[in-house]
Input
Amino acid sequence: MVNFEAGSERHIMNGDEGSETYGEFATYGVPPKRDLAMDSIFEYGSRVGVWRLLNVFRRYDAKVTFFATAKALEANPVLARKIIEEGHEICAHGYKWVEHYTMKKEEEKVSIRLAVEKIRKITGERPYGWYCREPSVNTIELLMEEGGFLYDSDAYNDDFPYYFRLGHKHLLIIPYTPDTNDFHFFANRFSTAKDFYTYLKDTFNQLYEEGEHNPKMMSVGLHDRISGRPGRAVAVKRFLHYVSQFKDVWVARRVDIARWWLEHHPP
Output
């Protein structure tokens, strides 16, 4: 999965008090200051990084899911159309980059509806997946109420899809992962592409071994402003090359996993 958020992060122009504070280096964007350096780091992802990753995916014929906010797509409609043209999926990452647990129920309902409407207008098709990063206690209920979502990924509690039941309704959960994720470059857990690649490879090998008895799913979390950097994109390239040697492994979009699961293992 590629997180595409540039243009929807905390920003004075988005109505926030200051700039985003999580990036390549410490920020001076204490409210109400605007941190132009941090803004430009996010912009790198949409100007350069995401295109580098698209080239890597194309090289290995990998179709992936983009966790994209509606406002980020709105700010870059050319990229939005390119993602769809190349066969990738857009999963709704919310209307903008904001914690949903801070919203009142009706406010969150409106935000979900706006995300769906904007993504449909920009790309020509609605999103079938949802991942807002920090859901509220109402999020799944509101997704079910909206009625068009096949899955939600706001969970980190399994290596395999499962159903969440609410009354007589069910929603498929396709869990995400916090460990095989490039944001650890910012936390200094990964320093080089070799660190990231080694961890991805070790995770894959362990799950592949376990898969001899029970099928497994592995998620890899990328960000265009992080893994889109030259020295980090190498890890993505190496991992896709490694995985491509296994003919019984499916590199899939999350919507494809959802459709397969719904067909073969209904609630």
